[in-house]
Design a protein that fits this description.
The complex is a heterotrimer. Chain A is an alpha+beta fold. Chain A is 45% helix and 11% strand. Chain A has a 4-stranded mixed sheet, covered by helices on one side. In chain A, helix 1 runs antiparallel to helix 2. Chain A is elongated, with a radius of gyration of 18 Å. Chain B is built from 16 helices and 22 strands. In chain B, helix 8 packs across helix 14 and helix 9 packs parallel to helix 14. In chain C, 42% of the residues lie in helices and 12% in strands. The N and C termini of chain C lie far apart (57 Å). The C terminus of chain C is likely disordered. Chains A and C meet through helix 2, helix 4 and helix 5 of A and strand 3, strand 5, strand 9 and helix 14 of C.
């Protein structure tokens, strides 16, 4: 049932599917699209995507749970993803994560009560030359210290 | 053909054969979990690693294709160490459930652990805790702690039933098998997952906690629930308590026959044994007089029926006898029935009373709800079900094989139609309520309890021997018919020999060209 | 000393380099014009083979040889997949090519496709590089608008379309067959090989998979010739490499240097040496999957064969510098956590071995280590290495083995005294 998707979203999905010889190949880009428009991908969204791309719904669930970037429930307006890998660790990544936890009042994995921030730990973001670093939604921030973190958080209204 | 060497022995196989299959031909079964002959190689369990001369790394037996002159070693220290490594990893996160796990005794993980001497664990960490009783289907429970991620279950539902109810969620050590909400395994073949699962991760609620495989004896038979004739194993406990001398059947499993059913059976056949074998069984002959059931000894029962039949024959009214056969009877029983009642006794009417057709699919299930409709046809029986009026008209003695007439006609109709028949005898394995309308009931065996053969819908004659023993006062229809011939005094030199299925089969092969090869 | 030639990164620091006008103005797409006008596909292929261009993703396999595995005369469509997944910890070089000089990559893609007879290319870019992916798509639109992509490119009769396809957070999708699975819309589970992607690849068709930096080198090779490329590097390992240096150095960043430059030189001459005057303890030379080198092992030339001879891997050239004062257990812990998190879970040794290793290392890090733990880690790693369905198992095992062997004393010195089980 695709009643949940607007006609615009459906046609964007079909356009994505048209870029491949097999519609199923569009699954990851389509899930990114649905997630960007709806905040997360619900079970009903999964069924709708499955129907549009011609695959058993369980295949969508398999992909949703395999890849870390897909979310089955919404996150805060600003999803802060702090790198917990080696180069960042060598540059004080643990301290950065702890500082963020303290400032936001949530542990890694949590969302602030006002829904503004979700804080998660992620693996190497490919920005080791600016360690310690993090991503806010899709924007990279590096060379962070307490002052820069305060500045950053202040700017995220 | 390709010639290669496995553990020094030369083996010749067609091009494209895998090392696994070539080894099988050489009498070696490589240890394996994820591999299954019905699917393409998966290569994920890593247990079938073997050494190939010239290759620096160990290679998989399941997916490596043989090459001319290849030298394979299946039992070197390096190979054994690799297998121990895989098993040790599996055991590290595997719960020590053997004492409460249904699979114990037929579990590949147990077997291999014993073969490779893994008795002590070096794992000092905390095991993953997972759900142990996930209802993934009507009769299926998934224990995620026991699951070794071989994915046979997922692949069966993708490749064979194409119903995709199971998937793999999450990744790494957190990977787990699961269903979608509201999407349990429901496709008529779900029971095969229990056989497929190499460990006790997927178990059958039907069999759960009931017994241990080492208490079971295994017999070979043919499933009687439709015209396909899937080959089966009947797992039973001989001498089941409270019914001494008999066998209680605990489960039916597929017996691989590439030409008929492959390694699968359907759920209707697999779980149908509960009703067919164990429930509502008639357990002795009895006579129904004025509402009171009087048990009879077999000799007495045969004598009484024989007297009634002979009386009619002597009075020149043999044609007042009607016999309703069923294609639940074996080829041998149908042959004997025809010989006795049509050729020698001269019964007035011989008809077929079979259940109406049922559900079928494009995999194994056939619409005919009997195992031997084709056999009956080849033996010359008219498959068209009779009308009650035609059956009852002028009939003084009715011998009814099987209770299936009650599946075609309502109880009131039956009672009315049969009222005029003086003697009604039912030969049945089951009490279905129909016996209330009968004068005599002879308790008969189920197909699993007798010798015989069925002809499946394709015309394949499949002989089988008794897989389990019936209660002591139950007789096969063949024995009943042979005894009747005796008590009727028909051609003793002929019928006197025809007391076993094998003997009847030889006669059958002589008489009817279709069965010419059946002896 | 003379500055090393900056053939790839020379213009990275120009504003708006990523726009096509800037690229063309400095000679961009000249190689493509030359190839389509003057060279056959085979000639382009041969030039790349002669240039000894080795894969820059981690495996170091010669690109020209890989292209040659595509069956001739197949009537199936052929595909090129560009591996822009860049998930190897310590690696960030492709990010610069993609964001600063996308047209360099595009030109490389067209040339490679022309050489092999491919008309459909997919760039598999890691999901986190969302902004960069959009920039790449803009560049593709620009290239198409200028006639460098699409149908009948520059009137040559050669067609090519490029599609950008984002991943979604799985390191394993940098492995070529997992990349294919992911591109087909599935879980990133690597495939059994054989068959190899060159024969059965994307959508079951012959497929070439190349890293971003590998392809970015192709325009230079075609414009200036294989000889020029070999001069820059070594006879079996031509060209320059973009090394990424991170960790305890004064100037973390990308450094384009000839293949074969010494690791010591990269760290101490180019990347500014140790940060805050600390002393060197150890270096991971080629991304987290490469075995660690002790401070006295860094006089190794950074080319594929030399690093292999030194018992490690050039890999992705992601150099992670570790200073004295950093507990080696911290490094080991990051290694153990990463591979356990990224294991796809398909095959037994990786799925359960990486988890067991992680649990052991975490117990050690929590102060509950026991005698025998270091030996246990070595044994576990040995039961993973060479036994798995894909190289992630090896990538997980080798660093653990190297750290456990080379820093055994430090690891064992830090263990709680042997005693009761946790």
């Amino acid at each position: 049932m695709i009643a949940a998707f607007s006609p615009e979203l459906v046609s964007k999905i079909e356009a994505l599917a048209g870029r491949y010889p097999a519609k199923a190949a569009a699954l990851l880009p389509v899930l990114h699209l649905v997630q960007s428009e709806r905040g997360h991908v619900s079970a009903e969204d999964e069924r709708a995507v499955a129907g549009l791309l011609g695959m058993p719904p369980i295949k969508v669930r398999e992909v949703m749970t395999f890849y870390t970037m897909f979310r089955r429930s919404s996150v805060g307006r600003y999803h802060i993803q702090v790198c917990t890998n080696l180069s960042c660790s060598l540059a004080g990544g643990e301290a950065l994560a702890a500082y963020l936890e303290a400032k936001l009042g949530v542990k890694l994995g949590g969302t602030t009560p006002d829904g503004r921030f979700t804080l998660t730990g992620v693996e190497c973001l490919g920005a080791c030359e600016t360690a310690p670093c993090l991503m806010v939604n899709f924007d990279y921030y590096g060379n962070l210290d307490a002052a820069r973190v305060d500045e950053l958080l202040g700017s995220l209204t | 053909m390709i010639k290669l060497f496995i553990d020094g022995a030369a083996v010749e196989v067609p091009e494209g054969t895998t090392v696994f299959k070539a080894a099988e031909q050489a009498g070696i079964e490589l240890p394996h979990f994820c591999f299954h002959p019905a699917f393409a190689p998966e290569g994920s369990c890593r247990l079938c690693l073997i050494q190939i001369e010239g290759s620096p790394k160990l290679e998989l037996g399941c997916s490596t294709v043989v090459r001319e002159g290849m030298k394979v070693v299946t039992q070197s220290p390096a190979v054994r160490e690799a297998r121990r490594g895989v098993l040790e990893f599996l055991l590290a996160e595997h719960p020590l459930d053997c004492p409460i796990c249904d699979k114990a005794g037929e579990c590949k993980l147990q077997d291999y652990s014993r073969d490779y001497g893994l008795t002590e664990s070096a794992f000092r960490e905390f095991k993953e805790k997972r759900d142990k009783k996930v209802a993934i289907g009507e009769k299926l429970l998934l224990d995620r702690e026991r699951c070794i991620q071989c994915t046979r279950c997922v692949r069966f539902l993708a490749a064979i039933t194409k119903s995709h109810e199971l998937g793999v969620f999450e990744r790494g050590v957190h990977a787990e098998i699961g269903i979608l909400e509201g999407g349990p395994v429901r496709n008529g073949y779900s029971g095969n997952l229990v056989d497929l699962c190499p460990v006790g991760a997927i178990t059958d609620t039907d069999f759960r906690f009931k017994t241990r495989p080492w208490f079971l004896s295994r017999g070979e038979s043919v499933c009687p629930h439709c015209g396909r004739g899937c080959n089966i194993y009947v797992d039973y406990q001989p001498g089941f308590p409270r019914v001494p001398g008999s066998a209680k059947v605990f489960r039916i499993r597929p017996r691989t026959n590439e030409a008929v059913n492959g390694p699968w059976i359907c759920d209707a056949g697999r779980y149908g044994y509960v009703r067919a074998q164990n429930e509502g069984r008639s357990d002795r002959p009895f006579w129904n007089k004025d509402g009171a059931k009087t048990g009879l000894a077999w000799d007495t029962a045969m004598a009484v029926l024989g007297d009634k039949l002979r009386a009619l024959a002597d009075a020149g009214r043999a044609d007042r006898v009607a016999v309703a056969a069923t294609s639940w009877l074996t080829n041998e029983e149908l042959f004997l029935l025809k010989k006795i009642f049509r050729d020698d006794f001269g019964a007035g009417r011989i008809v077929m009373c079979d259940p109406p057709p049922g559900e079928w699919d494009d995999f194994l299930r056939r619409p005919d709800r009997t195992p031997n409709a084709r056999g009956a046809r080849e033996l010359g029986f008219d498959p068209a079900p009779p009308t009650l009026e035609a059956l009852a008209r002028g009939t003084e003695v009715l011998i009814l094989f099987g209770p299936h007439i009650a599946e075609r006609f309502a109880a009131d109709e039956l009672r009315a139609a049969l009222r005029g028949i003086a003697v009604k005898v039912l030969v049945t394995p089951h009490f279905t309520g129909l016996e209330g309308l009968m004068d005599g009931v002879l308790a008969s065996a189920t197909p699993a309890e007798k010798d015989g053969s069925f002809t499946n819908f394709e015309g394949r004659v499949q002989p089988f021997a008794a897989a389990a023993r019936p209660c002591p006062d139950v007789r096969s229809e063949l024995a009943i018919l042979a005894a009747l011939a005796g008590s009727l005094g028909l051609r003793p030199d002929y019928y006197g020999r025809l007391t076993t299925a094998a003997a009847v089969r030889r006669e059958l092969a002589k008489d009817i060209p279709f069965f010419g090869g059946a002896a | 000393m003379t500055k090393a030639p900056q053939v790839l990164t020379e213009f990275f620091w120009l504003e708006q380099l990523h726009r096509i006008e800037a690229y063309v103005a400095r000679g961009g797409y000249a190689a493509l014009k030359k190839a389509l006008a003057e060279m056959t596909a085979e000639q382009v292929h041969d030039e790349v083979k002669k240039a000894a261009l080795r894969g820059r993703g981690g495996a170091g396999f010669p690109a020209g040889v890989k292209w040659g595995f595509i069956p001739k005369g197949t009537d199936k469509p052929k595909y090129l997949c560009v591996n822009a997944d860049e998930g190897e910890p310590g690696t960030f070089k492709d990010k610069y090519i993609l964001s600063h000089d996308p047209h360099l990559l595009i030109e490389g893609i067209v040339l490679a496709s022309y050489a092999v007879g491919i008309h459909s290319a997919y760039v598999y870019i890691r999901g986190e590089y969302e902004t960069i992916a959009r920039r790449l798509e803009q560049a593709i639109d620009e290239a198409r608008g200028a006639g460098f992509l699409g149908r009948n490119i520059l009137g040559s009769g050669f067609d090519l379309e490029i599609v950008v396809h984002r991943g979604a957070g799985a390191y394993i999708c940098g492995e070529e067959t997992a990349l294919l699975e992911s591109l087909e819309g599935k879980r990133g589970n690597p495939r059994l090989k054989p068959p190899f992607p060159a024969v059965v690849g994307l959508f079951q068709c012959p497929t070439v998979i190349n890293n971003v930096e590998t392809l970015a080198n192709v325009p230079g090779i075609i414009r200036n010739g294989a000889g020029w490329f070999l001069e820059l590097g070594l006879p079996k390992d031509g060209g320059t490499r973009i090394f990424g240096v991170s960790g305890a150095v004064a100037k973390p960043g990308i450094y384009e240097l000839p293949s074969g430059t010494s690791l010591r030189e990269i760290i101490f001459t180019h990347a500014g040496g140790m940060k805050d005057g600390r002393k060197l303890k150890a270096v991971i030379p080629g991304g987290m999957s490469s075995p660690i080198l002790k401070a006295d092992e860094i006089d190794v030339r950074m080319d594929v064969d030399s690093v292999a001879a030194a018992g490690s891997m050039l890999g992705s050239g992601g150099i992670i510098v570790i200073a004295d004062g950093t507990p080696i257990l911290q490094v080991l812990r990051k290694v153990a956590e990463f591979y356990a998190h990224e294991s796809c879970g398909q095959c037994t040794p990786c799925r359960l071995g990486t988890s067991w290793i992680r649990k052991t290392v975490e117990r050690m890090a929590a102060g509950r280590g026991q005698a025998g733990d270091v030996d246990a880690l070595i044994r576990l790693a040995a039961n993973i290495q060479g036994r798995t369905l894909c190289p992630l198992g090896d990538a997980a095992a080798m660093p653990v083995t190297a750290i456990a062997r080379k820093f055994r004393a430090e690891l064992e010195g830090g263990l709680a005294t042997a005693g009761a089980r946790p």
